[in-house]
Amino acid sequence: MTGTHHDVAEFALIDRIRARVANRGDVILGIGDDAALLQVPAGKHLVVATDTLNAGVHFPHDTAPADIGWKSLAVNLSDLAAMAAEPAWCTLSLSLPESDTGWLDGFLDGFLALAAQHRVALVGGDTTRGPLSVCVTVHGFVEPGRALLRTTARAGDDVWVSGTLGDAAAALDHWRLGTAHDEVLRARLDRPTPRVALGLALAGTAHACIDISDGLMADLGHVCRASGVAAELDLEALPASEALRAAYEGEQRHALQAAGGDDYELCFTAPAGSLDDIARLAAQAGTAVTWIGRIVAGEGVQVFDADGQAWLPSKVGYEHFG
Ligand code: ADP
Ligand code: MG
């Protein structure tokens, strides 16, 4: 809380948070003082990412507090995964309409469950009154020179993606239309899996990497622009879950996979001929990966259908709601 408006309720919320956080040996001083004191391992680079989730923009209003907690950390860990960084610490800035301990306890259930999975310590934050908004900053480490960047894709690289595409956008489509509901798809929207182990495994082998938050075509487009190359994708190669196949077919499914947001999968490029290495590293990380296309000279992302025709997604079913 900033300014002169600290009140007992806000201190009670902070105490509630502090009582539940796990510690790490490299946290010299966590929650409680004006700032945290943290020990960065000698010789490593500190990697920092931050992302805000606003109610009604980044998650539906009916999202459970625990799911908001999970997702607010997951989207940040996904950014570290895309850099091949090992997560360590995070801070949490919470804006809440009212001092609601029930809401906070639920939020912490999800947030701290994911934090425990990745041994991430919550070391500080801010608590204010206002429209529901959650801003998380994560800190991690990487060996100098090993971070995976957007700028390092090369013509001739293969393009790969982790997991499956379009599930979260499908759940959002269901929610928006109110016509259907699928637990598996909804879980992919509410509880994305940050691919931290995969990102770490790919360092040293992959050339470029990005996490997919705005949709495969848009995010791979960022890599292409940053690297000065183009991508050619095979529409039929894009991985789909059983749940997505059961709920959507044809053009609609393809649009969700190629352009739907909120997947939090990793899209990466790797030298042609590294197929076996990628398969082995992905197996080690316990994450499925799929070959989806190639990097070529030029600019932009082009997708080709089964007949080899250039394909563009229809506008149906994947717009960000707001
Ligand atoms: P200050 O006025 O010095 O910013 P605050 O009252 O905002 O102090 O915070 C007191 C302590 O509680 C600080 O260590 C801060 O990092 C921590 N803190 C506040 N809000 C949160 C939160 N939502 N999550 C984790 N730590 C928090
Ligand atoms: Mg403060």
UniProtKB/TrEMBL annotation:
Reaction(s) catalysed by this chain's protein: thiamine phosphate + ATP = thiamine diphosphate + ADP
Binding-site residues, substrate: H58, D262, Y318
Function in brief: Catalyzes the ATP-dependent phosphorylation of thiamine-monophosphate (TMP) to form thiamine-pyrophosphate (TPP), the active form of vitamin B1.
Encoding gene per record: thiL
Binding site for Mg(2+) 3: D34, D79, D211
CDD domains listed in its UniProt record: ThiL
Domain PurM-like C-terminal: 154-304
Residues that hold Mg(2+) 4 according to the record: D34, D79
Matches recorded under SUPFAM superfamilies: PurM C-terminal domain-like, PurM N-terminal domain-like
Binding site for ATP: G125, D126, R150, S213
Family: Belongs to the thiamine-monophosphate kinase family.
Residues binding Mg(2+) 2: D51, D79
Protein name: Thiamine-monophosphate kinase
One Pfam family in the UniProt entry: AIRS_C
NCBIfam families, per the entry: thiL
